[in-house]
Amino acid sequence: MQTATATPAVRKVTRPRADALRNRERIVVAAREMFVEFGPDVPLDEIARRAGVGNATLYRNFPDRDALVREVVFSVLDRTVEHGQAALAETGDAFGALERFVHASADERISALCPMISSTFDEHHPDLEAARERVELIIEEIMDRAKATGQLRPDVGVGDVMIAVAQLSRPPAGTACLNADRFVHRHLQLFLDGMRAPAPSVLPGSAVTMEDLRQA
């Protein structure tokens, strides 16, 4: 007589609901905007209000301020990589792709997040180092392609672009200087025009690398 074999129970995988994911994204977007406008110490309930969610929803997703800051930083870095991937997918003008990437990256307001990275993160945290490396590699690939076509002057490096985006894109968080935003893309374009080959002048020093920035 055969014994019945018990059918293993199928374990259900719990996935976040679509509305829960939307709430989380709204919180991150609102936090990024308010960190830029007011700095990283903006009250969390104000962030929840701008996101259109309750305080309980915010704390359910982010138990403390550091967790929210980390999510915002990684969101910006990931979006910057996405802009880079879109630029690399373009098959037309290589320098034009670089221009579009730089302008899109500036709109991510990376410079305003720099103080938050230094105050919230372990500088050598593997997740942060991996995210930075992804950004660095994709910028280098975009620049190498523009150099290979003879459109980008050869004496500039990834660090030069990173410095320009950080310094020209947005004022430091909480400086109440957002009215300067209207000049951002104008001045970035002046910088980009100066990177075109053939170079009209000799730059002092050498091309800035990311290692140079890390040691600064």
From TrEMBL:
UniProt xrefs under InterPro entries: Homeodomain-like_sf, HTH-type_TetR-like_transc_reg, HTH_TetR, Tet_transcr_reg_TetR-rel_C_sf, TetR_SbtR-like_C
Gene3D superfamilies: Tetracycline Repressor, domain 2
Record-annotated DNA-binding residue ranges: 43-62
Ranges for domain HTH tetR-type: 21-80
Keywords: DNA-binding, Transcription, Transcription regulation
Domain of life: Bacteria
Annotated protein name in UniProt: TetR family transcriptional regulator
